[in-house]
Batch of 4 targets.
Target 1
Amino acid sequence: MTLSVGWLSALAVGVFSALVLQKLCFPYFWREFFFMLKLVRFGVKLELSDLTSSICTVLDKFIEQAQRTPNKPFVIYDGNIHTYRDIDQRSNRLAGVFLERVKLRKGDCVALLMSNEPDFLCVWFGLKKVGCLVAFLNTNIKSKSLLHCFNCCGAKTLIVGSGKASDLMEHVDSLLEDNIQVWAMTSQSENPRVHTLLDKIQGASDQPVPAVLRATTSLRSPTLYIFTSGSTGLPKAAVITHRQCLFATVGLWAFGATADDVVYIALPLYHSAASLIGIGGTIELGATCILKKKFSASQFWNDCRKHNVTVFQYIGELCRYLCNQPKTEMDKVHKVRLGVGNGLRPDVWREFHRRFGDIKMCEVYGSTEGNLCLMNHFGKIGTVGRSSFFNKLLFSFDLVKYDTEKDEPVRDQYGFCQRVKRGETGLLLSKVSTSNPFFGYAGSKQLTEKKLTRNVFRKGDAYFNTGDLMAEDQESFMYFRDRMGDTFRWKGENVATTEVAETLAPVDFIQEVNVYGVEVPGMAEHRAGMSAMTLRPGLTFDGKKLHEFVMRDLPAYARPLFIRLQEALEMTSTFKQQKFKLVQSGFNPSAISDPLYVLDYLQKSYVPLTDSIYQRILAGEHRL
Ligand SMILES: *[C@@H]1O[C@H](CO)[C@@H](O)[C@H](O)[C@H]1NC(C)=O
């Protein structure tokens, strides 16, 4: 008896100390373990459904949800409630019209050009009910890229939202010439060759079309094309399979959201974040979403209070806009508890917590087309997730040494890449395999091949090149450092533009800042640091103060040499800072109407950049 008690207590002490040791050495172990367990269980179920051909797509999930909770609000838009049944029935009507009037057939590809509105979902689901592939077009699309988009995904039909129909009219002729039929979500059309849909839905039946039309036999068959914005050049059509859609839809659930949550979606639906993580996530949970046509920083918190929003989707810039709003005593009065998104910079992240309280911010790292996804479910500031043991079981990725000058990975004497040491910045590559496939871009083998890096660690292997430079800390947390190409070289040193921007952010008169490198004539291989910035309302640019700041906080090579004051910083359509145009326009004061300043070490200040200084820089008489 005594013996067994002694043995038991020894065991208990042993287990206890093992747990303590584990807590000390691996404080994130269990949180990671349970999080991953959730995902792995989901993944296993998914693969089993593929083997047994009982795949439940996102659309199937929606239809099930509409049967389970028909009267539950699914989308609230502009103050109007659309229940699960409403959206289901309207998409049935549309599916009927697509079959009978538009003569669409299973497997056809249809392009969708609509802004955020409930009908975006009805048309999307209606098309999927008929078994069509759907290509989401960016609503900012320019005429030049429009035809290109049709060519890459092979769409022969375009459906235009009511608001977009008039914008499109000038391009309609070229579409029609290419034998693309155009259908608008309107009742009347000025152009007799543009067909109308709204009038036809009215009389259509709200009964479902045959389920066999939407059935799919493989998780790996494409279901959507989503265009990703190339920073230069034409958009690329990423091929999205059912499997990717289904994984994206469990994001909110994995972060702990439930059917009782109210999800705020103000990002454009033509991107995967809003359509798959946001709408798909709402369906997976059986929750309600507040859909916004556009994000508005001044309306955001009022909306959240009005609708009891608990979860919102962000990109870093949105949080920055929110922090830049005037403070009010209502700032912390809301029920928002979770933010899901990406690109939140550490300074904004901290400020966001200070202003709006304890909202768990979960960063999701992964591109639409990529084969890697990292999730920071810890809410740990500044990181995109953890390169843990469990994560490595699911995804195989590595950080490799990167040559910023050549814009490519460093190769050793045998032609292979080298892993960076912990703490060092490297290029993130993700191995392409059967469990983590890369489906590439529709209509272009060449673009697909360009995203791949081959022979990385051995002959014949292939990795998806994320184009992101990251570093991993001692606790295996991953930190975003820079976008490939967002680093430039000056006087033999690499300048990481986002790092400089983050350092400048605390300067009191700066509202927003964008750092980039400009070419100086006569110094071909170098880029001089330049920073475009906007000023906080009521404050003025103080060259002396900025000089003092950069001298203290930035190494010599990283100090911006030129400053460009702007009324507003230009953003790309995905709210990323527009650098390309700024780089192109350079620093010539006679060509730029914005106020320009140059760093002057003698006067210990940033002084206005005059024509004569500019000429002396070109002549090499003014030392930079
Ligand atoms: C929000 O929550 C409050 C209190 O829980 C409740 O009284 C109110 O009706 C809710 N509003 C909406 C739009 O659900």
Note: The first strand starts at residue 73 and ends at 77.
Target 2
Amino acid sequence: MNRIPVAEPLLNGNERKYVDDCIDTGWISGSGKYVNGLEEQFAAFCGARYAIAVFNGTVALHVALLALKVGPGDEVIVPDLTYIASANTVAYCGATPVFVDVDPYTWTLDIADVARKITPRTKAIMPVHVYGHPSEMGPLVELAKQYNIAIVEDAAEAHGAEYKGQRVGGIGELATFSFFGNKIITSGEGGIITTNDQGLMDEIRLLKGQGMDPKRRYWFPVIGYNYRMTNVQAAIALAQLEQVDWFIQRRLEVASWYEEELKGSMFTLSPQAEWAKNVYWLYCVLVPEGIDRDRFMADMDKENIETRPFFYPMHVLPPYLDEQGDTKFPVTTRLAASGVNLPSSAKITRADVKRICEAMFKCLALQDS
Ligand SMILES: *Cc1c(COP(=O)(O)O)cnc(C)c1O
């Protein structure tokens, strides 16, 4: 039987037409009508005033933190359960990522743990809408306001996710998204920053374009970066954005099929808080207690079904190693050891989901004997 991958891009809209147009017109570098169009339409999609396109989701986070003047001596609060880029970009700024545990029900920032870890050095909080489920933004925004701390949403995995009816990307001071090949919409490599603050927007535009004064060619008031997205990347991203509602609808549909098949089973399923719209970037399960997750995944692989383990907790990785981390971050530790990402791309069919779930029950039974 054919192999079912966890994620693969679907490029069947205007992608080719727009890329051809870039080549025909020679607009292939870091500016052009697709970059402008993407920025305009992505901002509208998030309900944010501005969007700034950049080369990938990692540099989006870096430049967002730089715009907030995060630097040496500062701390940024980051969930222990995330992709490494969330923590690394804090380190790029010379600042320290301060990890907090995640909530057992939403798998996103534990607000009480955030409150405990705020210090006079805390410059920003980075909620990560992990696997497509939004963080609990209401209480987080309240807390940040109280201490005058900025929020940078890492929304790399959550295009279109909502907190109480409001789309992520327009809630914190800044938010960043990724258009990597496995994300909800893609440009191969790509990223974007959204904000409602014109000052931050101007600062990010300055920094992403080598620091050149927009009114004075070859005049560089600051050390900037070349983080520009090319018009070719933007052409693909814009064609994807035209279909984003469909992409999100597909993911919700795939999630509903998994729920039909797995409801009432021993697996714990992807979260869905009552205030949240989860966009299920990757559909997830936790294997039951006593089941060896890695063996389960190896058995699924033999069924020709690709799965992925959850991210390692940041605290076990060499750059951020904390020997006491397992006791400080018990929820992340448990999730990271038992979590599995299931095939979730827009190409998945109802029959695929049935086959995947039948294989899951079979692989579970293998460990019973
Ligand atoms: C994918 C991802 C990023 C980085 O995005 P790239 O475009 O791959 O650089 C950052 N944070 C999270 C949570 C991600 O999943």
Note: The chain has 13 helices and 14 strands.
Target 3
Amino acid sequence: MWSPKLFLVSLCISALSTCTAAGGGKPLVSAVTKDASTSLYTAPLKDGRPLVLDLSGPVITLTTCSSKNGTVTTLSANATDGANPLFPVSFPAAASCGAPPKLPAAAVGVAGLGPSSQSFLAQVARTQKVANKLALCLPSDGKTTSGNSVGVAIFGGGPLIFPDRGDFTTMLAGTAPLRGFSGSPGYYVSANTACLGFVRAAGQAPAAVLGGFQMENRLLVLDVEKKQLGFTTFLNGVGLSCSNFNFTLAA
Ligand SMILES: *[C@@H]1O[C@H](CO)[C@@H](O)[C@H](O)[C@H]1NC(C)=O
Ligand SMILES: *[C@@H]1O[C@H](CO)[C@@H](O)[C@H](O)[C@H]1NC(C)=O
Ligand SMILES: *[C@@H]1O[C@H](CO)[C@@H](O)[C@H](O)[C@H]1NC(C)=O
């Protein structure tokens, strides 16, 4: 007898990689901290040491490594169900060597999140079998807006659940198409000049924040495949901040 279930199983066996990718692994979660002296955002992705997050960076760059030609390094973060960290995950990543100047003192490199096949985001997508997607909630410095200075990033996309408030990746206030997928280093919002980024690389156009709106204390959902940016309302306006993510390991 013809069974739809069996048919699906055999389809999956004959195209295992497709099914695995579609079925998905678990996204990775990391705390995001704003460095007071440089105003750059970092995440502890290299043996617990911070990498600077760079939305316009095409690659992972380490400040010190054995070869000038690039290296394979081990990075780590926690798998997540969107509500809590679940368990630590380490994975190999290709990195280049020699970082831009003016990194925060503790930083050991840069995690480029730009539209490139060698970006941190693309490498997480390949190794973890998750979407090439980022849910990013940047913390404030605690002065201009409420909340402390720890935000959250989920590499692989959502859900991103705040305790008792639900999945905010499904509560977007709007979306905007992204440009910049044909060789340019960053993501541009229909603001050819306004680039989504915060690292000012020498010799490049200044990285301006998105058109007039603040990136901090909003949830941004950057979908590289759909070339779309989603954003929620200002979280402080609904009694939350990016610091509300629950970083306690799930029991
Ligand atoms: C780096 O790459 C260049 C060109 O491919 C090569 O000539 C050189 O030997 C390499 N250096 C190291 C340290 O691997
Ligand atoms: C995983 O999460 C726990 C709890 O928040 C944290 O202490 C630990 O540093 C995280 N591990 C990594 C690799 O980020
Ligand atoms: C955070 O997560 C832990 C582990 O699941 C849970 O015990 C705790 O109640 C959560 N905290 C909040 C504020 O929801």
Note: The chain has three helices and 16 strands.
Target 4
Amino acid sequence: MEIKITKNQHPAEKPKDESKLGFGLKYTDHMFIMDYTAGEGWHDARIVPFEDLHIHPAAVVLHYAAEVFEGLKAYRTADGEVQMFRPIENIRRMNNSAERLCLPTLDENDAMQALTTFVELEKDWVPHTEGTSLYLRPFMFATEANLGLHTIKEAMFCIIASPSGSYYAEGINPVKIMIETHDVRAVRGGTGYAKCGGNYAASNRAGERAEALGFSQVLWLDGVYQKYIEEVGSMNVMFKIDGKIYTPDLIGTVLPGITRKSIIELLKDEGYEVIEKRISVEEVITALENGTLEEAWGCGTAAVVSPIGELAYDGKEYVINDNKIGSLTQHLYDELTAIQWGKAEDKHNWTVKVK
Ligand SMILES: *Cc1c(COP(=O)(O)O)cnc(C)c1O
């Protein structure tokens, strides 16, 4: 695939104080764009100066939410190199999401080339401080002007990037999570497994209510019985009960996290028994009450792992591991981040170096 590059003639200054980067506040000098037209396929791959997009007010995405996205990071290693973590997994998941929403899919090699060419060009934007990274956000949406519901004929694929601060600048503190018993995020046959903006829009209300009550996120239950554990906000969830690790199985309602998948592989390497199954909320509450629930954590690209210190259900609050990060949660964080930042040997070949 040919990518036409138009360099930004007025590049911005890189942030001097990397402790104030935050998340998703600042963007790099360029963006990748490619257009899709039915019958023609993807065309006009280009990297251009970062700027506003112009889309028609009747663009399908603005009315019918035909949008999917991805999130991954580029890390700077101790010797100054830049690497991405399992980018092919993000590309494959984006295609699965796109397929679910009837958006066009991408050729895997072209998408990989788009990512690596873009990151190569923006390499100097990968911050240097411990724990920081360049967050990459590929996304795709339907652009044609059409208020009638038809097959999607025009779409756009973009990649933007945002230098991000350390998620745990103040140390890894356990979070308070509320089990949501009213709203649901996904149902079987729906879009739960797709990374699409619509899932987030539907989640906002519960998230805001939980926040107003002092919780950081909600833990979703299944959409039919409201009885089985699904996932936390934008993270998958895992429990250590009586020495074994439990996580909800992927039956179409849960987002198949790449962090989830990587942690399962690391746990199995270390001889842990990992059980992927339907987990009822009663099972978790029973384990909390009889003291067998040792640790609980969320996992996702942004935080890597996020220990759960308190869980609220049905008006009761339960404390986990004295509201401290558990030793396995800490170990998983250390192990995975060591691979991502190039401090440990990458036995699984998960990282991809950028020139
Ligand atoms: C992205 C996401 C995750 C985590 O996936 P990773 O690939 O590990 O970052 C979990 N749940 C939801 C709803 C997500 O959107």
Note: The longest helix spans residues 197-212.
